[in-house]
Amino acid sequence: MGTLTYASLHLEFEDRLLQHLQIVIIQKFRRHEAFLMSWKESASAGDGRAAIWLTPNVPISFKFYGSKAPSVNRDWLSSLGRSADSSTGLIVTGEDGELALASPDSGQPGTAHHKWP
Q1: Strand partners, 49
Q2: Is residue 116 included in any domain, yes or no?
Q3: Closest CA to 40 of 99, 80, 107
Q4: What is the 3-state secondary structure (H, E, C) of the chain?
Q5: How many domains does the structure of the chain reveal?
Q6: How far is CA 24 from the centre of its chain?
Q7: Which tens digit of pLDDT belongs to each residue from 31-88?
Q8: 37, 80, 87, 93 — which has fewest CB within 10 A?
Q9: Can you say whether the dihedral through the CA atoms of 110, 67, 115, 23 is positive or negative?
Q10: What are residue 103's DSSP bridge partners?
Q11: Are 28 and 86 in contact (CB under 8 A)?
Q12: How confident is the model at residue 110 (pLDDT cuts 50, 70, 90)?
């Protein structure tokens, strides 16, 4: 599991998914584009859906817990990119197209617990 940190929000995603999200998000930010990102929350976070408006003016970081960079699936990357460019924003999905689960971070050293500002 890796952690996406945006302002004071900390979310855990599987490293491979986080790798794909990093590419899509940074591509949008390099073009100075803001957009909506939504995800499915784990049962520990309420088992609902959540969304946040991402803008390149707010610090973002990606921390991967695996030592090797995950492989990139170009089709999955393309699907996430199209989603990010749509009016619904980036809907975080797994490689199979199903909604992907985000967990509040588990409090591992160097990170904080999931909280909304």
Answers
A1: 40
A2: no
A3: 99
A4: CEEEEECCEEEEECHHHHHHHHHHHHHHHHCCCCEEEEEEECHHHCCCEEEEEECCCCCEEEECCCCCCCCCCHHHHHHHHHHHHCCCCEECECCCCCECEEEECCCCCCCCCCCCC
A5: 1
A6: 9
A7: 999 999 999 987 776 778 999 999 999 999 999 998 898 899 999 999 999 999 999 9
A8: 87
A9: positive
A10: 12
A11: no
A12: very low
Q: Is residue 117 part of a domain?
A: no
Structural Rg of the chain based on CA atoms: 13
Encoded tokens for 30: 């390099």
pTM over 0.90: no
Burial of 114 (0-12, 13-18, 19+ CB in 10 A): buried
Strand partners, 60: 6
Asked if residue 112 is part of any domain, the answer here is no
Owning domain of residue 73 = 2-104
User: Within 13 Å and on the Cβ side, how many CA atoms surround 67?
Assistant: 0
What pLDDT does residue 116 have?
Answer: 39
Looking at this protein, which amino acid is placed at residue 32?
H
CA 107 vs. chain centroid, Å, equals: 18
Residue 30 belongs to a domain: yes
